[in-house]
Design a protein that fits this description.
By secondary structure, this protein is an alpha/beta fold. The chain has helices at residues 2-19, 24-62, 70-78, 100-117, 137-142, 168-171, 175-186, 199-217, 223-226, 228-238, 248-273, 278-306, and strands at residues 66-67, 85-91, 126-132, 150-154. The chain starts with a helix and ends in an 11-residue tail after the last helix.
Length: 317
């Protein structure tokens, strides 16, 4: 009996050595502490990210674009964790900087940010911010940036690439172009809504009201409008009736008419090539078109009066 019991004890002892090797308890304890530390670090990152997103959403509820200094830029844009995209406009809006392009670009940027803020697709995946040179000089130095305005996209992960800097010189800074660039970089599509601009309509209404008021005040003496002899005398006084001669005053009149047409062409070109507010560009275009059409008609009318038998006219005969 004693001889048979000894192998059994040896087998039990062997099993103990196989299942519980020497030094296993410190290793298990270290592994447990590492798991607890990793879990705590992950939870800390999640809490920090939630706090950052909550703060950004609170700022967005107050205004569509929030301004950042160096500390805020490093905390909310440069430092991880981050699961949102940030569009940043680097600008110099202080009056002493005299950056007119910055002001024009800021107007378009405001339109774009407001369109996103009041959009039904608004979420916490995209935010708009601004860094002014006088409020974040250290940020400009950190990014080696020496020009303004500049638009940059900071993605949720990783560093910005070359395409994350908006090509303002080639494309311009219209809100629609910025929205297209953002859609390419973030897959977030923003429909731009521009506030109505009634300045042109108001100016036209005031002009019509002024002319109508003057005619109303002179309603009992409007014969001068229909007096063809008077208009003919004015024309004959300054415009020679023959194509073989020209008065000195007529030369000045032709010079003024050509200058007015040239001014209209310049305004049309400015409206087509400028990068400012669309409403202002529309008004400039209408004014330029009006100058070209009216004064060219006047010039053609003078030519028609000097070259008798010329069959063509436009607006003014």
């Amino acid at each position: 009996m004693g001889a048979r019991a000894a192998p059994s004890r040896r087998r039990q002892g062997g099993r103990r050595l196989r299942y519980l090797p020497t030094g296993s308890f410190p290793f298990l304890l270290l592994l447990l502490l590492l798991c607890i530390q990793l879990g705590g670090g992950q939870k800390k990152k999640e809490n920090l990210l939630a706090e950052k997103v909550e703060q950004l959403m609170e700022w967005s509820s107050r205004r569509s674009i929030f301004r950042m200094n160096g500390d805020k830029f490093r905390k909310f844009i440069k430092a991880p964790p981050r699961n949102y995209s940030m569009i940043v406009m680097f600008t110099a809006l202080q009056p002493q900087r005299q950056c007119s392009v910055c002001r024009q670009a800021n107007e378009e940027y405001q339109i774009l940010a407001n369109s996103w803020r009041y959009s039904s697709a608004f979420c916490n995946k995209l935010f708009f911010s601004m860094v002014d040179y006088d409020e974040g000089t250290d940020v400009f130095q950190q990014l080696n940036m020496n020009s303004a305005p500049t638009f940059m996209h900071f993605p949720p992960k990783g560093r910005p690439k070359r395409a994350d800097t908006f090509d303002l010189q080639r494309i311009g800074f219209a809100a629609e172009q910025l929205a297209k660039w953002i859609a390419d970089r973030t897959d977030v599509h923003i429909r731009v809504f521009r506030p109505p601009n009634y300045s042109g309509t108001i100016a036209l209404a005031l002009l019509v009201s002024l002319v109508g008021g003057l005619l109303y005040l002179r309603r009992n003496n409007l014969e001068f409008i229909y007096n063809k002899t008077g208009w003919a005398m004015v024309s004959l006084s300054y415009i020679h009736g023959s194509s073989q001669a020209q008065f000195v005053a007529e030369s000045h009149i032709i010079l003024v008419l050509n200058a007015a047409i040239t001014m209209g062409m310049v305004l049309l070109n400015e409206a087509a090539t400028s990068k400012g507010d669309v409403g202002k560009r529309r008004i400039i275009c209408l004014v330029g078109l009006g100058l070209v059409v009216f004064f060219f008609s006047f010039l053609l009318s003078i030519f028609r009066s000097k070259y008798h038998g010329y069959p063509y006219s436009f607006l003014i005969k």
